[in-house]
Design a protein that fits this description.
Blueprint lengths: L3 E6 L6 H9 L6 E3 L2 E3 L10 E3 L2 H9 L3 E7 L2 E6 L1 H7 L3 E5 L5 H7 L4 E6 L2 H11 L4 H24 L5 E5 L4 H24 L1
Parallel strand pairs: 1-7, 1-8, 2-7, 3-4, 8-9
Antiparallel strand pairs: 3-6, 5-6
Helix pairs in contact: 1-7, 5-6
Length: 198
């Protein structure tokens, strides 16, 4: 495949949906943001989600409708097989993924790059409280778990640096986060084009 898969991950409340929506407002023609199918109740606020029942998802999964799929927190997520079509066409494709699923993604898409969205713990706590989906105890545990995962990942990254991993801080203004992401995506896309020419 000649395109570039960019797999974006981050904890709930890190702002992935907001970052992708802002990026989409000025997207180059050869960049694509894939919708993510999920077995969750529909939310009109997210333009990059496709809501399916558990039964429909499993049926489509058996039919090979998804290039990637994973389970988390009692939900099933999937990226449709059009992902491979876009990559074969040489496009840069962004996917809203899962931190726990990254190793599986690398096995299937060796040239994939990772964007890990981070946010200051106190800000993450505030955002999760504002959403009102969980108890304070559950939110505190989620924030602690995120800190542990991020520390472990940074430790592994320090021992084995990679140009295909970008830690993106979304504690700042959204416009600045998106501007930083755009610069990194342009760099990865340029490398992809150079490989094709070479």
């Amino acid at each position: 495949m000649q395109g570039k898969l960019v797999y974006m991950v981050g904890p709930s409340g890190s702002g992935k949906d907001s970052v992708l929506a802002a990026l989409a407002a000025d997207l180059p023609p050869d960049w694509v943001i894939m919708k993510r199918a999920v077995t969750r109740e529909e939310s009109p606020a997210n333009a990059y989600a496709e809501y399916l029942s558990h039964e429909v998802f499993r049926q489509q999964q058996r039919q090979g409708a998804f290039a990637l799929s994973w389970e988390a927190h009692g939900l099933i997520y999937g990226i449709r097989s059009e992902l491979d079509t876009h990559l074969q066409a040489g496009k840069l494709v962004l996917v809203n993924g899962s931190r726990e699923h990254w190793e599986q993604v690398k096995q299937r898409y060796e040239q994939a790059s990772l964007v890990w969205l981070t946010v200051a713990p106190e800000l993450l706590l505030q955002r999760l409280q504002m959403r009102g989906r969980e108890s304070m105890d559950a939110i505190t545990l989620r924030v602690q778990r995120n800190q542990q995962m991020e520390q472990q990942f940074r430790h592994r990254l320090g021992a084995n640096p990679s140009h295909n991993v970008y830690m993106l801080d979304n504690s700042q203004a959204l416009d600045q986060t998106v501007a930083n992401l755009r610069v990194q995506l342009q760099q990865w896309h340029k490398q992809c084009v150079m490989r094709k020419v070479g």
